[in-house]
Amino acid sequence: PAHECVFPQVGVTAQKTMRLLPASGRKATQKVVVVGDQDGVVTCFGIKKGEAVPVFKTLPGKKIARLELGGALNTPQEKIFVATGSEVRGFTKRGKQFLTFETNLTESIKAMYVHISGADLFLCASYIYNHYCDCKDQHYYLSGDKINDVLCLPVDKVNCITPVLACQDRVLRVLQGSDLLCEVEVPGPATVLALNNGNGGDSGEEVVYGTSDGKLGLIQITGAKAIPKWEIGNEKKRGGILCIDNFDILGDGVKELLVGRDDGVLEIYNFESADDPVLRYDHALSESIASIQGGCVGKDGYDEILASTYSGWLTGLTTEPVHREGGSGEELKLSQEMQSKISSLRSELEHLQMKVHQEREKYQQSSQSSTAVLSVPAFSVNDKFTLNKDDASYSLILEVQTAIDNVLVQSDVPVDLLDVDKNSAVVSFSSCDSEPNSNFLLATYRCQANTTRLELKVRSIEGQYGTLQAYVTPRIQPKTCQVHQYQIKPLSLHQRTHSIDQDRPMNTLMLKGQFSFAEIHSWVVFCLPEVPEKTPAGESVTFYFQNTFLGTQLESTYRKGEGCFRSDNISTISILKDVLSKEATKRKINLNISYDVNEESVRHTLKLIHPKLEYQQLLAKKVHLIDALRELQVHEGNVDFLLPKYRSILEEADQLLEEYKRQPAHLERLYGMITDLFIDKFKFKGTNVKSRVPLLLEILDGCDQDGLIAFFEAA
């Protein structure tokens, strides 16, 4: 793709709500764009001579959550299906509505897939999957966690209906009828599914998935067996994947993989060998990419990648050359068509500026009248609060449909704000009283003009739980603000995992009492992230977790009247004991609590912490030496006389300072964890050792692992 071109803007769009209709007419190659927005409007347009030509536009209604195409087998897929609320509507390519199907779902549709025939509809609400054939209910399935996307393997290739659900608990669920055929573990919460090569590959069994933590993979589903083919990590720490398409944009006869991410990065992967895809091209947009498609749209003979972003912008990356070159030595000149396009855009911009000025004056006059009633302008905020496994921090991403003026962040629990490279906002901290108001953080991010997306990073402390609030104020008049709340949970640094190492020394906490399955599940939801709010089906459930900061683990198994929690970190057990007791007391439920402490687990946890502690202490020492060494360098002129280890500190000074700045209070957090481990070990024995903490801190400064273990065992 050579350059970017912009199409008309629609309203705020959800994931997978833009498609390209096949070209109509025998010789036509240009495709028509159809997009659904959160105002409930379906807009369809083509491009003629560089101008958007409307085909049809529907009236506003409920938010459109998905838009898919369908049609009879071996015919162009040009019937448009939209999911809005609990209803599915169908439109022809000319805009005539041919279907209104009110489903029996009590919730809004979150994901939809239309089989090629158009007769089979696969719909998902939060936890519920339904298959309809000719609008008649065929199959139903209740998932163990939230469903993010759905598709069906091509029936003409696999000879049976095989739906695949992408679920929040890092599992792809393959169904047969209303039954679970198999579960496929994937490396992150799958947010989007696509058939490989657009048709499931030669076998029709290949499914590409993208995850919310930015990973890509291909799975081959053969009957009740699933084989992982390839997997691409997210080494560049890019955003989560929202959309995937297959299209031959490079013109080499092999379809490339087009990927859109929630940080605005668009990627093209191609298959140089028959195995893993290779990133060939990427391009950064300023907003999250909700939908991506490949095809010929803007100009006949030139293919494009079309992306729709969160606030409704449609952007095309075209293969058409930017300039047409004259003879040698001649200046590159813009084509006549390009010049007329620029002048038309200029006049359109002037007209809009005049209109805005007139409306603003009209508003000022009406707001000053005695009968004026001010209406608060509504604006849409797309937010995401997720735990990053790599650095044990939470990412808070705020995306607004209009430019952000400022964001105020407040927390009633201690949290560290970490640096984000992509963040250009200016941050200022206000002093706050933690005692009377439980106010531990007050920070304001002032955004530069035209910033619509802001990313923040925070790190919490396990055992301290409460609420983080973001007050979002956009650049609109009159000034208005939205408050968004995010829960910091007691075991906030734990992340769901598929399995744990059963050979580690484990501590056990047992609960018994007159509580229901739903009650103990609600307590676990309160304590731990990534647990589905809905009470699981069945009589009991087991969840596995890993602490992203330390690498310790937790196994949680519970049923009506009984709960068992096992961890190799005694502090995790201590936090659970305190919080679960408090929650049971609130509901006036008596708990019988017993525990089994494994002494070996403390030594094991210290050995996990020590390499991190040693690294951070060494980093702190190096950073403290940098100023003195630089002064010496300026004074002496050269540093050849220094020992190699000091010369290397000077050479790596910028990277060391950058790393230290990115991880403020990292060493403090490690000291805090070791102190908690020491206190918790003896708390279970009924001994208060807080008076010995200063001695422990002295030993920590010495960074001697054997001395530390000896102190824990001798105390």
UniProtKB/TrEMBL annotation:
It comes from Tricholaema leucomelas (pied barbet). InterPro entries: Bardet-Biedl_syndrome_7_prot, BBS7_GAE_dom, BBS7_hairpin, BBS7_pf_dom, Beta-prop_BBS7, WD40_repeat_dom_sf. Residues 335-362 form a coiled coil. Pfam families: BBS7_GAE (PF23360), BBS7_hp (PF23349), BBS7_pf (PF23361), Beta-prop_BBS7 (PF23743). Keywords: Coiled coil. This is BBS7 protein. It comes from the Eukaryota. The keyword Signal does not apply. PANTHER family: BARDET-BIEDL SYNDROME 7 PROTEIN (PTHR16074:SF4). Residues 599-712 form the BBS7 helical hairpin domain. Residues 18-319 form the BBS7 beta-propeller domain. GO terms for cellular component: axoneme; BBSome; ciliary basal body; membrane; neuron projection. Residues 494-596 form the BBS7 platform domain. Residues 377-486 form the BBS7 GAE domain. GO terms for biological process: intracellular protein localization; non-motile cilium assembly.
